[in-house]
Automatic annotation (TrEMBL):
GO terms for biological process: DNA integration. This is RNA-directed DNA polymerase. GO terms for molecular function: nucleic acid binding; RNA-directed DNA polymerase activity. SUPFAM superfamilies: Ribonuclease H-like. It comes from Chionoecetes opilio (Atlantic snow crab). It comes from the Eukaryota. Its EC number is 2.7.7.49. Residues 165-305 form the Integrase catalytic domain. It holds the Pfam family Integrase_H2C2.
Length: 305
């Protein structure tokens, strides 16, 4: 029986966002509706993979005493058998998930999205995913990457190793648009810490521009599990919905004609709007008064402490 820490760690692999299949979560097990989308997709793939199903059965009931009685597809797991555990549909290697064969190529591609070297990509994989031969697969993928080989330095050197109840910062965020002095702004607020990000948008609040703003936000602070917004056209567009699915974010839209259901974002808008009106009434927030005000706004503890 897998330990609670291992199960908790499995559910934390949202940081990887390794698989982006675009599957409708309503088709998945309702018991996992609130889980990370990546885990949902791994579970769904595990159920439909006959070899993975046999592996899970061996992990649950015990491997045979002799390796030669194993199916050939399971032989690579023999030397790891004492480190394998079952968690529902998934198999864990220690505290990380064993990826079904159908998702390995996509997982490797996601691991190499940063276009780091072999050693750095392996270190990233060791935090989140496993399968027999993963190190060799990473090496061949990096060596086959044309941009990496073209731009590889002559003496490559890796860096030195030096309603909602979120459990960690930036797990769940709210967002909304507002305007001051005919200039539009996007505010994104963390639902646990209250950390605010304010982005000037000018006059462009289209879905395309909104997607780019969220890409930058994800790049800077990480990808949340959940996003709550109102029913604005940029948030309800097909492009934005597809964008949220690609990045594995559960997007909740407030009830029509009842914006109070997105009250967390509305409260953040109120705070920031008052700050702008007091420190930059012309809408130009590129000044020290606004910077100091936003810093203090972020440093002020909320009800969670």
């Amino acid at each position: 029986m897998v330990c609670a820490e291992a199960a908790a760690h499995l559910r934390s692999v949202v940081s990887l966002n390794a698989i982006n299949q675009g599957q409708d979560p309503s088709h998945l097990d309702p018991l996992h509706q609130d889980a990370d989308r990546t885990i949902q997709e791994l579970r769904a793939a595990a159920v439909t993979d006959p070899s993975y199903t046999r592996l899970r059965e061996c992990v649950t009931s015990g491997f045979p005493p002799n390796r030669y009685t194993l199916p050939s597809s399971l032989l690579p797991y023999w030397k790891f058998r004492d480190c394998l555990y079952a968690d529902g549909e998934l198999v864990l290697y220690g505290q990380i998930s064993v990826v079904p064969a159908a998702h390995r190529r996509r997982t490797i591609a996601r691991l190499h999205d940063s276009h780091r070297g072999v050693a750095a990509t392996k270190r990233r994989a060791q935090q989140t995913v496993f399968w027999p031969g993963i190190d060799a697969d990473i090496t061949s993928t990096v060596q086959a990457c044309k941009p990496c080989q073209i731009l590889q330095p002559s003496q490559q050197q890796e860096p030195l190793l030096c309603d909602d109840h979120p459990s960690r910062p930036f797990e769940s965020v709210s967002a909304d648009f507002f305007s001051v002095a005919r200039k539009s702004f996007l505010v994104i607020a963390d639902r646990l810490s209250g950390w605010l990000v304010v982005v000037p948008c000018g006059a462009d609040t289209t879905a395309t521009h909104t997607i780019r703003l969220f890409c930058r936000y994800f790049r800077e602070v990480g990808v949340p599990l959940r996003l709550r917004t109102d029913g604005g056209p940029q948030f309800t567009s097909t492009d934005f919905r597809n964008f949220m699915e690609r990045w594995g974010v559960h997007h909740a839209v407030s009830s029509p004609h009842y914006p109070q259901s997105n009250g967390h974002a509305k409260a953040a808008v109120k705070s920031v709007k008052h700050l702008i009106l007091k420190t930059a009434p012309n809408g130009n927030i590129d000044n020290e008064d606004f910077d100091r005000g936003l810093l203090e706004l972020r440093n002020t503890p909320n009800f969670t402490g």
